[in-house]
Amino acid sequence: MSEADRVELTEFSKNPGTGVLKQLEAGLNPTLYDLAVLMIIVSDNTATDLLLDILGRTNVNQTMANLGLTKTRVDLTCRDILFDLVGIDSANPSLQDVKEAHRRRERGEVNRKARTMVDLACNNVSAAREMTDLLWRLAHGKILGPRATSRALDVLERQQVNDRLPLFLPTSVKVAHKTGELPGIKNDAGLVYDASRKRGFAVTVFNWELDDEMEGRVVIGKAALIAARHFLQC
Which of 85, 114, 140, 155 has its CA 20 to 30 A from that of 210? Predict the structure, then answer.
């Protein structure tokens, strides 16, 4: 398997929620690298599931376990979560179900008490400490080889959702990060560097049960600013 391998985008594979692939014509053949970029920089749910289908949840979870991330696991696809939020069974969906899920999501018909919002026993879960440790080890070349490390950090630095960790940071500070969100949830995990890239730190902030999602963004931004003032004296 190569990052240059291509995957066909179909109408059926398009997921609701964040992303751009759902807006494009079926028949497009993005590379695995393209999918990885979209997954990171715009949280593309379709790209994420296409990659997850290829890699396999078992392999992803085994990799996390091998890295010592005992609290991090991926039990559900983006589709599983998003369909559950709008009340559609994802077990054997038809194309009509897929289209209806898009319509309900666009209309904002989201159940905040859906199973995937309250049941951690069968869900995608992680821990802030584990994400921070993962990113720190990635930055220091302890997970991937030099080329792959450089490319991974480059993609993380191209993140386009910058309303959390970078919110209050000066423009001279560089942030390589990945956001995450669901209704009432705002997360961000990243690496923060000074202009020279010689000093930096990893930080993760998870928020949930938010009545005001802007408050979640501000809390994450303030946490990053406090850490930057301490570690980078900025």
Answer: 155
